[in-house]
Amino acid sequence: MSNIMTVEDRMRSRLTSFLSVALLATAAFLVPASPAAAAPSFRTPFPCHQTWSGETRTTHSPQYAIDFNRADDHGDPVKASAPGTVDVVANLGDTSYGRYVRINHGGGYTTYYAHLSGFNVSVGQSVGYATTIGYVGNSGGSSGSHLHYEQRLNGSDIMVRFSGNLALYFGTQNYTRTAGC
Ligand SMILES: [Zn+2]
Questions:
Q1: How many angstroms separate the alpha carbon of residue 60 from the centre of ligand 1?
Q2: Which terminus has fewer CB within 10 Å in the chain: N or C?
Q3: For residue 147, how far is its CA from the centre of ligand 1 (angstroms)?
Q4: How far is CA 16 from the centre of its chain?
Q5: How far from 115 is each of 30, 67, 89, 142, 143, CA to CA, in Å?
Q6: What is the mean pLDDT of each run of 10 residues along the chain (181 residues)?
Q7: Cα separation of 126 and 51, whole Å?
């Protein structure tokens, strides 16, 4: 006799089921799966049509960074590789990055430009592809003028892509900004 439900019990049971489904539906609506943001379309961090030699190596820190060089490059302008907001302009003296700029592109993506000889932006500044952010140099832990460049996602360095094309890992090849020129 104990498993015979009264009318009241059945109604309560149905109400409970209804509320459970409603709560689950609400939870699913309030907490949607967050799709990964699309990566920005990064371009080489130099003016259009300039060709730079980019070197990657397994011993580089961080490993997926690229060192860019060309003849007599000291003082050459460095361009933002994608639109964003400058969130670091710092000088670490004779160590590490030396003078460097970080740009926040949203979606967890940042780019780093290190060993600069000088700055041309300040923290909080919005930048676009055409913005000169600083100048190639030899500051920090660097022996010889070059640009140390990184792309990071959520703080971790990632393999560099320009216009969606993966950079050469590991080795040296030429890179030229041609997109959007
Ligand atoms: Zn480097």
A1: 6
A2: N
A3: 7
A4: 47
A5: 45, 10, 12, 7, 10
A6: 51 49 47 68 98 98 98 98 98 98 98 98 98 98 97 98 97 95 90
A7: 26
Q: What's residue 176's pLDDT?
A: 98
CA 83 / ligand 1 centre spacing (Å): 22
148 Cα: distance to centroid of ligand 1 (angstroms): 4
Distances (CA, A) of 91 to 63, 75, 84, 125, 152: 22, 17, 21, 17, 20
For residue 24, what pLDDT is reported?
45
- Model pLDDT, residue 38: 86
The rounded Å distance from CA 121 to ligand 1 centre is 21
Centre of ligand 1 to C-alpha 61, Å, is: 7
95 CA to middle of ligand 1, Å? 12
